[in-house]
Design a protein that fits this description.
The complex is a heterotrimer. Chain A starts with a helix and ends in a 10-residue tail after the last helix. In chain A, strand 1 and strand 2 form a beta hairpin. Chain A is built from 12 helices and 2 strands. Chain A has one domain: ABC transporter involved in vitamin B12 uptake, BtuC (Orthogonal Bundle), CATH 1.10.3470. By secondary structure, chain A is mainly α. By secondary structure, chain B is of the alpha/beta class. In chain B, helix 6 links the parallel strand 7 and strand 8. The longest helix of chain B is centred in the middle third of the chain and has 14 residues. The model of chain B has no long low-confidence stretch (mean pLDDT about 90). Chain C has a two-stranded antiparallel ribbon. In chain C, helix 2 packs antiparallel against helix 9. The longest helix of chain C is centred in the first third of the chain and has 38 residues. The two termini of chain C are about 25 Å apart. The N terminus of chain C is likely disordered. The chains are: A mainly alpha, B alpha/beta, C mainly alpha. Chain B: One of its GO terms (molecular function) is ATP binding.
Chain lengths: ~300, ~250, ~325
C-alpha cells in the first residue's frame, strides 16, 4: 500500500510538473494580456509532434529536443503576430471564437501533415530503465528526468520573474497593466515575448512527455481543460499559484483515481465502491476547483476576480 | 435623529490613507455639501457611503440602522440613492427605460417572466415623473447613449430620484456642465431641497455656497471644518488649505 | 397614456424584425418536409430534425450570452443531460417523452444552480474557464458511466413515446414535434426577454454598476437566467437523442459547447431568431464542407478566425453595428 502510494505520488508530481509548464504561459497570457487562449493546448500537442518528427529525422531524441525549441519559438511568434496580437482589444467572446477556430485549424492540420495514427517517440537510451526506489519498488528513470527537468525550468522561471527586469515588468503587468504602459514600455513587444515564452514552455511540456505517451491529435484537449483548472485554482496571473495549483490538481487527479475506490470501500461494499470510485475519480479535480472557488473566487493567489 | 451618521470612518490603500477618521452627520431635509481640493478623497468617501467600497473601520448609519456592511443594492432599497461623477447609464436603453428600471426596482417583483414590460403604465408614469423632476422628460424616447453630456447628468439624477430615496448622495452632479445648463441644474436641486436629504460632493463653489445648509471641507482624507457656508468661508484653516489651489473660495 | 406612445416608436423597430425573421424561419421549417418528400431523400428529414434541436439549444444559450453577456462554455453539458435522461429512463422502461423531459429539466436545474452559483461569483475570463471546466466534469462523469457504454455511447432500443403512442418513430412526426417545441420555446423566450425580468437581465448586461446603484443585486437575476437557459438546452438534448437514437458523451464535449457559441454568434447575439438562423447556417456549412472534404474543420476554423480578424470590431462588433443600424 505504501509502495503504491509513493508510486502514485511520484506520478502525480510528474504530471504536475508538466501541467505547470503549460499553465505558466497560460496564466501570464491571461493575467497580462487578458486574452482567453483556447489554443494553448494545441501548442502542447505541436511540441510533441515536433519532437517526434525531428527525433525521427535525426535518429536522436536529444537532437529532436534541441531542434524543437527554435520551431516552438517560431510557432509562438507567428501565432502572436498573425492572430493573438489582433485580439488584445477585442471582447472575450471574440477571443473565444478566434482561438476556438485556431484549435480546429491546428487539429486538422496535424491530421493532414502527420496522419491520424498516433506517433511514438523512443525513449533516449541513457534515460531508459528504472532505478530502485524503496525495495521492491523501482521507478522509471525517464519520469524522474521529467520531474527534474520541469523543476529546473520552474526554478529558472522563478528567478526570471523575481530577479530580472523583464520579470518585474511581468509581475507589474499581471497586477496593473496601466502601470506598465505608464513606464514607457513597448507593450506590444512585451506581449509578444510573454506569449512566445508561454508557447515554448507548452511545446516543451509536450516534447518531454512524448516518449511516454502516444502522440496524437487529442492530446492537447484534455490537458487544456486541466490547465484551465490549474490557472483558475492558482489565481490568474500568478506563477506561484500555477505551480501549487498544478501539483495539487495532478496529485489529486492521480491519487484520487487509485485511492478513491479504496477509501470508499470502507463505507460501501466492494463492487459499489469500485463503481462509485470510477465515477467520482475523474470529477475530483473539478470538485476541488469548485470548493476552492467557493472560498476564494479569485483563486489561491489571484488578486482580481 | 440624524438621517445619515458617519462615525470615525477610515480607509487606506497600502500606505496611503484616503479616508482619515471622517465623522459627519446629515440631518433630515438638510443639504450638506462636501468640498475639497482634488485628491482629497471625496470620491472614495462616496464609494464607502454608497456601499461600493468597504471601509477599514468606522460606522455608517441611516435612520439609526447600521449600514456599514450593507451592499449598494441593499442601501438603495433602504432609501440611500446615489449619482455618479462619471456617468453610469444603460447606453442601449431609451431614457424612459433607464428610469423605468429604477422604478421597477422598488415597485413589485422583478421575477416576473411574462407580461410586456414596455406596456406597464405604472412603471412608465412613475419614470416620467422622475424624468420631469430632473428636466429631461422631453428626451424620454431617445436612446441613452445618444444624449449630450448635460443630458446624461440629468438622466443620472432622474435615475436616483426614481428609486424614491430619502437620501441622495450626489457625486459632482455638475461635473463638466457649464453656463446656463449649470444654472438650471442648481435651480433644480434648489427646488428639491427640503424634500430630500442630500449629501452633495461638488467642485463648483458658487453652486455649493448657493445650495448648502452646511459645508464640510475634506483635505487629505480629513474633515478640517464643518459649519454654515459663511463660517466655513471665513475659517482660516480652510483658507490655508485652499491657498495655492487654483480653485478660489468666492469671498 | 402619452407615456406608452413615446416609448413605443423606439421599441417597435427593434422588436418587429426579430419576430418577423423568426416567422420566416418557422414557415420555411414547416415547408421543409414536403420538399424532402418531393426530393425523395428521407435522410434529409433527419438532418432537419438535428438542425431544429440545435436551434433550440442555440436559442437557449442566446438567452444568457446575448441578453446576459454570460459567455458559458459549458452548455453542451445540458445537451448531454437531455440525451442521457432519455437513455437512462428508457432503460428502466420509462419511455414517455414528457417524463423524460421533466427529468432532464430537473437534473439541469440542479446542475445549473450549483455550478452557476459558483461561476457567477467571478467575471470575464474566469467565468468562461469555470463553465468550461464544469462542462468537462459532466463529460467525464458520463464517460465513466459504464452501464451506458461509457466512451462508446449507448444505442436506444426505441424512441420516446408521446402519451403512450409511438408516433415519434415516424421521422416526419419527430421533425414536426421538434418544430412545435422550438416555436413554443421561442415564444416563451420572447416573452421572458420582454418582461420585467428580461429588462433587468439586459440592464445588467448594459451596466452592472448602474443596476446595483438603483437597487438590483445582479447575481440572483443572472443565476435565474442561467438556470432557465440550462433547462431549455436540455430539452434540445431530449430531441437529439431521439433523432440519433443514440447517446454518447460526444454530445457534451467542449467542442460542442464551442459550436453552440459559434451558432449564436453567426446569427447575431441577443436576437433569439439570430441564434436559430445561426444554428441552420453553422450545421449547413458543416454538412456542405463535410461533403467537399474530410478536413472540413480546417476550413470552418479558418472561416471563424478570418471572420473575427477582418470584421472591424470582431463578429460581436459587426453584429452590434447591424443591430444599431436596424434600430435607428
Amino acid at each position: 500500500m505504501m509502495n503504491l502510494f509513493v508510486l502514485q505520488l511520484l506520478n502525480g508530481v510528474q504530471l504536475g510538473v508538466l501541467l505547470f509548464l503549460i499553465a505558466a504561459g497560460l496564466t501570464l497570457v491571461f493575467g497580462i494580456m487578458d486574452v482567453v487562449n483556447l489554443a494553448h493546448g494545441v501548442l502542447y500537442m505541436v511540441g510533441a509532434y515536433f519532437v517526434a518528427t525531428f527525433a525521427a529525422l535525426t535518429g536522436s531524441f536529444w537532437w529532436g529536443l534541441v531542434l524543437m525549441l527554435p520551431a516552438a519559438v517560431a510557432v509562438g511568434l507567428i501565432l502572436e503576430y498573425v492572430v493573438i496580437r489582433r485580439l488584445y482589444t477585442r471582447s472575450h467572446l471574440d477571443q473565444v471564437l478566434a482561438t476556438f477556430g485556431l484549435v480546429m485549424i491546428a487539429n486538422e492540420t496535424v491530421k493532414i501533415v502527420w496522419g491520424v495514427s498516433p506517433l511514438s517517440v523512443p525513449l533516449p537510451e541513457i534515460l531508459s530503465g528504472s532505478v530502485p526506489l524503496m525495495d521492491p519498488l523501482r521507478y522509471p528513470v525517464y519520469r524522474i528526468a521529467i520531474i527534474v527537468a520541469g523543476l529546473a525550468v520552474a526554478a529558472g522561471l522563478f528567478v526570471t520573474i523575481n530577479h530580472t527586469r523583464i520579470g518585474m515588468l511581468l509581475r507589474a503587468g499581471a497586477t496593473n497593466r496601466a502601470m506598465v504602459s505608464a513606464l514607457g514600455i513597448d507593450i506590444g513587444k512585451l506581449f509578444a515575448i510573454v506569449f512566445t515564452l508561454g508557447a515554448v514552455l507548452a511545446c516543451l511540456a509536450g516534447a518531454l512527455v512524448a516518449p511516454i505517451l502516444s502522440v496524437d491529435t487529442g492530446m492537447g484537449e484534455s490537458v487544456l481543460i486541466l490547465t484551465f483548472v490549474v490557472v483558475v485554482i492558482g489565481g490568474i496571473g500568478s506563477i506561484k499559484g500555477a505551480f501549487l495549483g498544478a501539483i495539487l490538481v495532478a496529485v489529486v487527479d492521480t491519487l484520487g483515481g487509485v485511492f478513491g475506490p479504496i477509501l470508499l470501500r470502507a463505507v460501501l461494499d466492494p463492487s459499489a465502491a469500485g463503481q462509485a470510485g470510477r465515477m467520482l475519480a475523474p470529477m475530483l479535480v473539478y470538485i476541488l476547483m469548485a470548493a476552492i472557488l467557493f472560498a476564494r473566487p479569485a483563486g489561491l493567489f489571484g488578486g482580481r476576480a | 435623529m440624524s438621517r445619515l451618521v458617519v462615525e470615525n470612518l477610515n480607509k487606506s490603500f497600502g500606505a496611503l490613507t484616503v479616508t482619515d477618521d471622517v465623522s459627519l452627520t446629515v440631518e433630515p431635509g438638510e443639504l450638506h455639501a462636501i468640498i475639497g481640493p482634488n485628491g482629497a478623497g471625496k470620491t472614495t468617501l462616496v464609494a464607502q457611503l454608497s456601499g461600493q467600497l468597504a471601509p477599514d473601520s468606522g460606522r455608517v448609519t441611516l435612520d439609526g440602522r447600521d449600514i456599514t456592511r450593507a451592499s449598494m443594492p441593499e442601501r438603495v432599497r433602504m432609501g440611500l440613492a446615489r449619482s455618479f461623477q462619471i456617468t453610469q447609464i444603460l447606453p442601449g436603453f431609451t431614457v424612459l427605460e433607464n428610469v423605468a428600471l429604477a422604478v421597477q426596482a422598488r415597485q413589485g417583483s422583478s421575477f416576473r417572466f411574462f407580461g410586456d414590460v414596455v406596456r406597464e403604465t405604472a412603471l412608465n408614469d412613475a419614470a416620467m415623473a422622475a424624468l420631469a423632476e430632473a428636466g429631461i422628460d422631453e428626451r424620454a424616447a431617445a436612446i441613452a447613449s445618444e444624449l449630450s453630456h448635460g443630458e446624461h447628468r440629468r438622466l443620472e439624477l432622474a435615475m436616483a430620484l426614481a428609486t424614491k430615496p430619502s437620501t441622495l448622495l450626489l457625486d459632482e452632479p455638475l461635473a463638466g456642465v457649464g453656463g446656463e445648463e449649470s444654472d438650471a441644474f442648481v435651480a433644480r436641486l434648489m427646488a428639491m431641497k427640503g424634500r430630500f436629504t442630500m449629501l452633495l460632493i461638488e467642485h463648483d463653489m458658487d453652486a455649493v455656497f448657493a445650495l448648502a445648509d452646511r459645508v464640510s471641507v475634506l483635505v487629505y482624507g480629513r474633515i478640517i471644518a464643518t459649519g454654515a457656508p459663511d463660517e466655513v468661508r471665513a475659517d482660516p484653516a480652510v483658507r490655508t488649505a485652499y491657498l495655492g489651489d487654483e480653485e478660489e473660495i468666492p469671498a | 397614456m402619452s407615456v406608452v406612445s413615446t416609448s413605443a416608436p423606439a421599441r417597435a423597430p427593434v422588436l418587429a424584425p426579430r419576430v418577423k425573421a423568426a416567422l420566416v424561419l418557422f414557415t420555411l421549417f414547416a415547408l421543409f418536409p414536403p420538399v424532402v418528400t418531393a426530393l425523395d431523400d428521407p435522410f434529409l428529414i433527419l438532418i432537419g430534425t438535428r438542425i431544429l434541436a440545435y436551434a433550440i439549444a442555440a436559442m437557449a444559450l442566446d438567452l444568457i450570452l446575448g441578453y446576459g453577456a454570460m459567455v458559458s462554455f459549458g452548455h453542451a453539458a445540458y445537451l448531454g443531460f437531455g440525451t442521457y435522461a432519455v437513455a437512462i429512463l428508457s432503460s428502466y422502461g420509462i419511455h414517455d417523452i414528457l417524463l423524460q423531459t421533466a427529468a432532464a429539466i430537473a437534473l439541469s436545474a440542479v446542475f445549473a444552480f450549483v455550478t452557476g452559483a459558483i461561476s457567477l461569483r467571478t467575471r470575464g475570463v474566469y467565468f468562461i474557464m469555470i463553465t468550461l471546466a464544469f462542462g468537462q466534469m459532466a463529460f467525464f462523469f458520463f464517460i465513466s458511466l459504464s452501464a451506458y457504454g461509457g466512451d462508446d455511447g449507448y444505442g436506444l432500443r426505441q424512441r420516446s413515446t408521446l402519451f403512450g403512442s409511438d408516433v415519434l418513430e415516424n421521422e416526419y412526426a419527430l421533425y414536426y414535434a421538434t418544430l412545435v417545441v422550438l416555436i413554443g420555446l421561442f415564444a416563451l423566450s420572447h416573452r421572458i426577454v420582454g418582461s420585467r425580468f428580461g429588462r433587468v437581465l439586459t440592464g445588467i448586461r448594459e451596466n452592472a454598476t448602474r443596476m446595483e446603484a438603483i437597487g438590483y443585486s445582479p447575481f440572483r437575476y443572472q443565476l435565474t437566467a442561467f438556470v432557465i437557459s440550462g433547462c431549455m438546452t436540455s430539452i434540445a438534448g431530449v430531441f437529439l437523442a431521439n433523432q440519433a437514437e443514440f447517446v454518447s458523451p460526444a454530445f457534451m464535449s467542449w467542442h460542442r459547447s464551442g459550436e453552440l457559441i459559434v451558432m449564436v454568434v453567426l446569427g447575431g447575439i441577443g436576437t433569439l431568431s439570430g441564434a436559430i438562423g445561426g444554428a441552420v447556417a453553422a450545421l449547413l456549412l458543416e454538412e456542405f464542407l463535410g461533403k467537399l472534404t474530410e478536413h472540413w474543420r480546417l476550413w470552418f476554423g479558418l472561416f471563424l478566425v478570418l471572420m473575427v480578424l477582418f470584421s472591424p470590431r470582431g463578429i460581436t462588433g459587426l453584429i452590434q453595428q447591424i443591430q444599431q443600424g436596424r434600430a435607428r
